[in-house]
Design a protein that fits this description.
alpha+beta, elongated, two-stranded antiparallel sheet, 3-stranded antiparallel beta sheet
Length: about 240
């Protein structure tokens, strides 16, 4: 699972928030494991004069005010000598410091555990989505093989194949121009049945008035047999009305 803002992987140790669209993302993409708002408040309010961070490399302990910020990279709470990230050392101090009221420690811990649970659930949802996509791939492959082996070219098998492709957006269902051009087949693969469109047959070129995604491949016209085109055109209207 990746952060929708920076496209970097989300880790259970990262500080995260839920965006307006419901997706989990980093609190600060430049410093994924940055202290949360509650942790920063507790650090400044209760532990300002404490040695809150210990550097294992340098063998020294530091107060928060002695730590360094790299304003170029955005990294904070760095060791002033070796520039190591001491965020986790600060976090360990906060959760153990006797000066913090138990309610403050509890609240900071709940926020941290909630963030970790959100990341874990996001990973599980992403894994489930991958499984579903693989199942769709297998189903489409079986339908395609059934269609190819059938002497009568069972229209029900092709219809289901088209519906699956509409559902996973391999075939478009909206932003279709009112006029679709046709031309002799040129050996292209039909976007509906995955069979070659020979020169002896009419080939319809399906385009969209708006790209289906940001990729160049998705903006290319989709060739179809004339009969596959008619079936797709019928099913896409049913698909739209059923959404």
């Amino acid at each position: 699972m990746t952060c929708p803002r920076c496209s970097q992987p989300l880790s259970p140790d990262d500080s995260v928030v839920v965006a307006a669209d419901g997706r989990v993302c980093h609190l600060d993409c430049r410093t994924p494991r940055a202290l949360s708002g509650d942790e920063r408040f507790a650090l400044i309010y209760y532990c300002f004069d404490h040695a809150v961070a210990s550097c294992a490399t340098c063998g020294r302990a530091y107060r928060e005010i002695e730590l360094v910020t790299d304003y170029v990279s955005g990294r904070t709470h760095l060791c002033p000598d070796c520039r190591g990230d001491l965020t986790e050392s600060i976090r360990a101090h906060l959760y153990a410091c006797a000066m913090l009221p138990e309610e403050v420690r509890r609240r900071a811990r709940v926020v941290r555990e909630t963030a970790q649970r959100l990341v874990k659930q996001s990973h599980q949802l992403a894994d489930r989505a991958d499984v579903l996509m693989r199942e769709v791939e297998v189903t489409v492959a079986k339908l395609r093989e059934t269609w190819r082996r059938s002497e009568s070219r069972d229209p029900d098998a092709l219809r289901l194949l088209v519906r699956l492709k509409l559902a996973d957006r391999r075939l478009p269902h909206e932003n279709i121009p009112p006029t679709i051009s046709g031309e002799p087949g040129d050996g292209s693969i039909c976007g509906a049945c995955d069979e070659v469109v020979p020169a002896s047959e009419l080939m319809m070129m399906v385009t969209t008035s708006a790209p289906r995604s940001s990729t160049a491949d998705d903006a290319r016209p989709i060739p179809m047999h004339a009969d596959c085109f008619e079936l797709w055109n019928l099913e896409r209207h049913h698909f739209k009305s059923g959404r």
